[in-house]
Structure to design on (861 residues):
């Protein structure tokens, strides 16, 4: 293209040129998190297919994907928040609550499917609005604001149902979560559609690019004319809506609204995002990376199942992976600085 | 009260039969791009209040921080009571009896006054529990001399800054400090409290302590100090007895220098007013009148804390204004957010480019296009090709030295980072550019390029408001100069009137009003 006439001066930090191609390849794998994740997932997949005869078949793959498809929607919402430098601990509770409200509207309220769906999404809209207002207007730290919402939403879910699941969901509605088209489960299709759209929007969408600027430096973003508070607020709304959608569809899949469901999901979601290349300080990462992080988490869970480890041990693994991922992130950052 | 002390000091300084409490010999300290201290000598005698003055960037803070153990000198020697010492950190300085009262006090606001005085040395019983009663009594005893009612049990944050300062002093004395360093101690306190502080300092002087007083308020320097040391551009200009000098002489020592750098030719054609502010007030500034015309560079000079940055942030909509009017091209405007200011054709290069200007972890391209995302995008999607073209164009016109437009800004040199700041605003063809200390922390070559850019911009018809605390820069760049002091514009000078002495005199508040017409008549 139009080649700048200025030669690169010596003060510019250039990558070392004397590296071997192998080292170059390795370093680019480490630099681009998506490639690193794909390699990690492949290695893990190969290892699992060697050690377990049940891993390598379509049924298992579909089961894995069904398992994480609704979490993927939450990952997309959480990603928009993390990129903007915020986050949300209330996602698990909001999933449960939105499912319960939609289930209640269907059964006790005798409402039509679309209205019940809207009611469930309304829960996400409301929690997202409240979270967003508390964080951007009152400037409460996202940790505290959403920790409060986590407890409140769960409390409403439990109080409203007195702890009992809402059952007898109409068959037609259950199809939304259980049905399949040409042998592909619907929920996997939802996931693929939303993930692809979200990834494109975050890569190319003008308004969505502002998330990266806000997360990278909110001061600079504001002084560059970006309405920082508005961007963060809208990210909370988006996250709330996606979380509620995941909650309602999960309810359809389970054919019941369970008030105690999805506890601890927030940790898995945040871990997936961080492993996939996001940083808690914001400004980094892609949707594809975060989804790959979720795939990795799902493989770990699957491995536990295939090797007969009790599901009760899962928290240990999730917590360890999260801590390791963040530590790794910190160490590589420190090396970049030095 | 100062009289006897002065006489006494005179005796010491003449006979030199006492060892200095602290002595700096040929201290040199450099930072990337600047020589902050160049073979500076300094002596503090017992029972002396020694003022340290100089412009912003003269090196007084660096010297202070070297003595406080925060910085390590590149070369030179420090002697405490005649013994050569190495002060590796502030803790070691404390052990040697050197305590610093910083502008941002290093206290724990939620803890009681007593716990702040006895931070690391609380009296304890055999089991290791704090003996609160003893501590409160000792604190009351320590604070008795300071002529102020303080309850040792009250949480510190309930007191104002002036009292907190006194607590900080009491803590230093509790640690057996022999040398107290004060950094602009009156910047956040009122007149009565200043007086109390001075009484307190004088008492400490009576007790034989040495006090280093860093300030740019010359009135205070003359009210309290025994000797004055003047630094300029990292060099020692001289140390004089306060009683044997006057303010004009000190101002001259601070700023008198040859202008030996070339600045771009002035075009000098001021045309239509682009920005007018009337009675503008906000946090830390009030009643400001200013006009910036197309084609001119209006320099705004003020020392740290004069309100110049706050004023700029108010105009650009980053901080709310509390009163007054802003007119752009003669039309009153409402600016509630930087985006409003940008719509009106304004651009703002902040003082701290790393914190407020750049996206350090993002690429050159992303940093440049952020101000014109909309113009370079379709309805929904960004257009990478147009972004790239814009970034390449900027790199070429501004001669930004980088390996590619996808290089992260954090790996660029300070000068090139600043050029990225210019690039992102020039991409919008601003009518008014506010540049706050645009040459701070960049090397000489890049400085000259920035100056050329500013002048080009003015010559092309933009209005430029250049905020600077470097007098030579103002001398070389200004078409007119406005001087701010304590939140007010106290003087507006035409290019020919703007001498370094005059600007400094306005900024330091030593200028007599009659010499020039009133500010209001000179807009």
């Amino acid at each position: 293209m139009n080649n700048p006439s200025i030669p690169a001066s010596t003060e510019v930090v250039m990558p070392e040129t004397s590296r071997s191609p192998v080292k170059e390849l390795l370093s680019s794998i480490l630099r681009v998190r998506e490639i690193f994740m794909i390699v990690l997932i492949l290695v893990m997949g190969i290892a699992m297919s060697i050690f377990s005869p049940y891993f390598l078949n379509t049924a298992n793959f579909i089961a894995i994907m069904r398992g994480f498809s609704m979490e993927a929607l939450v990952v997309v919402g959480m990603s928009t928040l993390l990129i903007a430098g915020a986050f949300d601990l209330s996602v698990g509770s909001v999933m449960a609550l939105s499912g319960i409200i939609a289930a209640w509207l269907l059964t006790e309220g005798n409402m039509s499917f679309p209205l019940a769906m809207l009611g469930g999404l309304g829960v996400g809209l409301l929690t997202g609005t409240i979270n967003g207002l508390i964080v951007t207007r009152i400037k409460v730290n996202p940790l505290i604001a959403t920790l409060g919402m986590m407890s409140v939403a769960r409390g409403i879910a439990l109080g409203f149902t007195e702890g009992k699941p809402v059952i007898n969901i109409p068959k037609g509605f259950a199809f939304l979560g259980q049905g399949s088209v040409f042998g592909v489960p619907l929920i996997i299709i939802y996931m693929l559609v939303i993930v692809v759209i979200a990834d494109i929007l975050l890569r190319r969408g003008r308004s969505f690019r502002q998330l990266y600027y806000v997360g990278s430096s909110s001061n600079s973003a504001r002084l560059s004319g970006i309405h920082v508070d508005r961007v963060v607020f809208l990210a909370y709304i988006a996250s709330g809506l996606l979380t509620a959608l995941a909650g309602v569809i999960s309810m359809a899949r389970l054919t019941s609204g369970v008030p105690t469901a999805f506890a601890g999901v927030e940790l898995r979601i945040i871990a997936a995002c961080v492993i996939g290349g996001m940083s808690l300080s914001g400004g980094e990462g892609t949707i594809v990376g975060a989804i790959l992080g979720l795939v990795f988490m799902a493989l770990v869970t699957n491995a536990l199942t295939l090797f007969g480890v009790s599901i009760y041990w899962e928290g240990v693994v999730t917590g360890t992976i999260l801590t390791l991922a963040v530590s790794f992130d910190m160490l590589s950052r420190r090396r970049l600085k030095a | 009260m100062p009289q006897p002390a002065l006489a006494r000091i005179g005796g010491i300084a003449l006979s030199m039969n006492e060892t200095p409490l602290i002595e700096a010999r040929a201290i040199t300290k450099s930072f990337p791009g600047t020589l902050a201290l160049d073979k500076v000598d300094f002596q503090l005698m017992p029972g002396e209040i020694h003022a340290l003055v100089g412009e912003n960037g003269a090196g007084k803070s660096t010297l202070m921080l070297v003595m406080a153990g925060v910085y390590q000198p590149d070369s030179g020697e420090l002697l405490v009571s005649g013994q050569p010492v190495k002060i590796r950190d502030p803790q070691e300085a404390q052990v040697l009896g050197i305590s610093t009262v910083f502008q941002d006090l290093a206290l724990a606001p939620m803890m009681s006054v007593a716990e702040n005085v006895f931070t690391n040395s609380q009296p304890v019983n055999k089991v290791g529990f704090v003996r609160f009663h003893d501590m409160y009594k000792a604190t009351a005893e320590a604070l008795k001399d300071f002529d102020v009612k303080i309850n040792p049990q009250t949480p510190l944050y309930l007191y104002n800054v002036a009292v907190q300062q006194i607590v900080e002093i009491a803590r230093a004395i509790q640690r057996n400090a022999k040398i107290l360093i004060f950094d602009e101690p009156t910047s956040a306190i009122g007149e009565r409290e200043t007086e109390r502080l001075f009484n307190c300092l004088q008492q400490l002087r009576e007790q034989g302590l040495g006090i280093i007083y860093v300030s740019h308020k010359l009135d205070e320097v003359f009210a309290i100090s025994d000797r004055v040391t003047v630094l300029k551009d990292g060099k020692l200009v001289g140390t004089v007895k306060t009683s044997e000098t006057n303010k004009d002489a000190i101002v001259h020592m601070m700023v008198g220098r040859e202008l030996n750098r070339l600045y771009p030719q002035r075009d000098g054609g001021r045309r239509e007013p682009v920005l007018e502010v009337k009675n503008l007030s906000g946090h830390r500034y009030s009643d400001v009148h200013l006009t910036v015309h197309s084609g001119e560079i209006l320099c705004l000079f003020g020392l740290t804390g004069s309100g110049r940055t706050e004023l700029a942030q108010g105009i650009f909509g980053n901080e709310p204004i509390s009163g007054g009017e802003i007119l752009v091209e003669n039309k009153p405007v409402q600016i509630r957010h930087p985006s409003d200011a940008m719509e009106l054709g304004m651009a703002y290069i902040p003082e701290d480019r790393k914190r407020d200007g750049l996206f350090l972890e993002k690429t050159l391209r992303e940093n440049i296009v952020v101000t014109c995302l909309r113009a370079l995008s379709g309805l929904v999607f960004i257009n990478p090709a147009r972004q790239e073209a814009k970034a390449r164009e900027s790199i070429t016109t501004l001669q930004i030295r980088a390996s590619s437009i996808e290089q992260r800004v954090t790996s660029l040199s300070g000068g090139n980072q600043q050029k990225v700041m210019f690039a992102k605003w020039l991409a919008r063809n601003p009518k008014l550019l506010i540049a706050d200390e645009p040459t701070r922390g960049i090397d000489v070559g890049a400085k000259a390029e920035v100056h050329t850019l500013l002048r080009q911009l003015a010559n092309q018809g933009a209005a430029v408001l250049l905020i600077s605390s470097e007098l030579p820069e103002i001398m070389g760049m200004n078409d007119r100069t406005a001087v701010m002091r304590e939140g007010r514009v106290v003087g507006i000078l035409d290019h020919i009137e703007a001498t370094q002495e005059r600007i400094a005199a306005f900024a330091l508040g030593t200028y007599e009003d009659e010499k020039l017409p009133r500010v209001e008549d000179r807009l």
Notes: Strands of chain A lie at 180-181, 184-185. Chain A touches chain B at residues 1-2, 4-6, 8-9, 11-14, 204-207, 209-210, 212-213, 216-217, 219-227, 283-284 (CB under 8 Å).
